[in-house]
Amino acid sequence: MEIDEPFVTEWGNVLFPPFHTSCRCAVEYEEIENAVSRTEFADNTQQQRDFEEEGEKFREIQDKLSDIAGKVGNDLKSFASGEKLTSYDELPENITKPFEEGLKNADTNVKTLLEKEMKKVSYAIDKERIAYNRKWDYIKIKEDVSPSAMAHELFHRIDYKYGIIEKYDFKKTLQKDFDDILKKCVRDGSVEGYLLRKYSYMFEKRTKKGWEVFEKYRGISDMFSGLTIDKLNLGYGHKREYWLKDKMKLSKEAWSQYGSIFYRNDGEVTKVFKELFPSFYESAIMVTKELI
Ligand SMILES: [Zn+2]
């Protein structure tokens, strides 16, 4: 926080940090350049956005169509949706090979879940975006889709199909984890300052807009964007308007980020994820195990 900014408490604004029972926290002044939050959004994460036009009334039709096996189902849906839909097996090898290669290294539970679900959804090759379309139950992918982006969209589909976010309140565990982070970052002056100190290796460079994490930490950056309505943006994240649109967005994106992070299963990233979001991680694993 800024040096002259008051602390907001339930009793009003105060000039010194509120005291907690048995807490000896203090505030230390530290120069942190660019600690001011960023609101701008990197264009390349647009691909991770969902379609918004879906309607509940289509769920019934979609379920029926999903039951119709293989190509017949896709032909019907192609006709209805106006897209050329294909099955997983009909996708070009330059998409399926790297994805399957990546599965070999994925976290066991995430791997099992993805293998169970990846052939149950239709796909469409699109020039512009990567997104899950709930209305017609298909994943739009670009020719050069990254395997982890595909895993991310599959997790959105799994959420929709099994009503994960409706059933489990990830928001509570995410908020708990974030509250714990806030407690730890008092002496750093900001969450960004804390992350820069404790996880300096996460950060690639500082731009005019602030610190930016390496590409593989984008999922974590997006979760901070969601937790703070994009006040804290570490280089990648959905826009403020996106988070404000629907209060479930944070849980939905966190679930899919968990899916893509543990699909990629990079030890450095999963370590940071588990340390920063231990409660959410536990609940996401529990749900994954229930689904497999
Ligand atoms: Zn997403």
Give the topology.
Elements: E1 7-9, E2 12-14, H1 57-67, H2 70-81, H3 93-105, H4 108-117, E3 122-125, E4 131-133, E5 138-141, H5 147-162, H6 164-167, H7 170-184, H8 191-198, E6 203-207, E7 210-213, H9 218-227, H10 240-245, H11 249-264, H12 267-276, H13 278-291
Parallel strand pairs: 3-5
Antiparallel strand pairs: 1-2, 4-5, 6-7
Bound molecules: zinc ion (ZN).
Zinc ion binds at residues 48, 50, 152, 156, 253, 256.
Model description:
The protein has 292 residues and is mainly alpha-helical. Helices cover 50% and strands 9% of the residues. The strands form 3 sheets. The chain has a 3-stranded mixed beta sheet with strand order 3-5-4, covered by helices on one side. A hairpin with a 2-residue loop joins strand 1 and strand 2 (12-14). The structure holds zinc ion. Zinc ion binds at residues 48, 50, 152, 156, 253, 256.
